[in-house]
Amino acid sequence: MTEFKPLVFSGVQPTGNLHLGNYLGAIRKFVALQENNDCIYCVVDLHALTAQLVHEDMATQIRSITAAFLAAGIDPKKHIVFNQSQVPQHAELAWIFNCVARIGWMNRMTQFKDKAGKDREQASLGLYAYPSLMAADILVYRATHVPVGEDQKQHLELARDIAMKFNMDFNEKIRPTGLGIDIKVGEEPVHAYFPMVEPLIDGPAPRVMSLKDGTKKMSKSDPSDLSRINLMDDQDAISKKIRKAKTDPDALPGEVDGLKGRPEADNLVGIFAALADKSKADVLSEFGGQQFSVFKPALIDLAVEVLAPINAEMRRLMEDPGHIDAVLRDGGERARTRAEKTMNEVRDIIGFVR
Ligand code: AQP
Description:
Shape: globular
Oligomer: single chain
Strand order of the largest sheet: 1-2-3
CATH topology of the largest domain: Rossmann fold
Distance between the termini: 26 Å
Bound molecules: adenosine-5'-tetraphosphate
C-alpha cells in the first residue's frame, strides 16, 4: 500500500436540537463531500452520555439527527449512516486509545474545561475521555478526512497524536504485517497502521456564533433558545430569532475589515454568506452602508428559503421511525464489518489471542 485509501468520517451528537451551526459547520459539508468520496456519517450516541447520562428520549434524538442527515441530502445507500452504539468496536478501540493517550494530552483539551466548568470533580470520566472515543470513531475505519466545525480542531490534533504514538510504539509489530504504509517521522522510517487524519474545517462558516452574543459559539446546550436557529424551527421562529438577534447601532461596512470588533455584525454577515454560498465581501458589496433594519429581513428570507425544505423533509421522515431505524440498522451492519476488520488487525498487532 503506498497511501491510505481516502475515506471521510464524521459524527454528530444526539444531544438536542440541531442548529444552524451544526448545519453550516458540518452537515452541509458532509453532503458536498459525498459526491467524490466514500463517506461514513455517524450519530454518536455514546458521546451523548458524557455530559448527561439519562436522556428523556434518546431514541427520538438519534432519529432526529438521522432525519437531518437524510433531509440535508446524505445518501445512506451509497454511503454509510448509522448510530455509534450499533458498532461496539468504537468503544473497544477507545479503550486501547485510553492506554495510548497521555494524561498530559487530555489535560490540555479546552472543550473538557469548558464543558466541565468549575465543578470539574463532578464531571464524568467519559467527558474527560471523550476525545479518545472520538479518535476511535475515526480510526476504527482508518478514515483519512474529517469534516468538522472549528471547535473540533483540537480533538483532531489529539487523534493524530494518538495515531502517531500507536504507529511508533507498535512499529516493530506492524512492519512484518505489511498492513500499513511507510512514512517518515523526522528521519525515522515508520510503518504506519493508522493514517494522520486531515481535518476539513474550511468553508464560509467554520464557527457560527450565538445570536445573543457574537463572542460565544452557537450551541445546542445554550439555555436560551433565542441564541440559535434550530433546523426544526418554523418560519415564524426563524423570523423572530433573527429580528431579536443582537446587533450594534452602526450600518454595515462596505469592506470585510470593517467587521473587526463587531462580532454580532460579523456573525450575521457570515451566516448570510454561508447560506447564499457567497463570500462576506460579496454580501458587503450588496449591503454595505445599509442598516440592520434592511439586512435582517433579507437574512430572514434567505434563511427560510434554505431551511424550509430541510425542515419539511425532517418532519416527514420523523413520521416514519421504522424507516429511519432500518437505515441505521443497515448502516450499522456495513460499518460493523469494516470496523471488525480493523479490530482484528489491531488485536493481532497488539498480540491478543483470538
Ligand atoms: N457553532 C458552530 N459553528 C460551526 N460548526 C459547529 N458545530 C457545532 N457547533 C458549531 C459542528 O457541528 C458538528 C456536530 O457537533 P456535535 O453535536 O457533535 O457537538 P458540539 O460541537 O459539542 O455541538 P454543540 O451544538 O455545541 O453541542 P453541545 O451544546 O452539546 O456542545 C461538529 O462538527 C461541530 O464542530
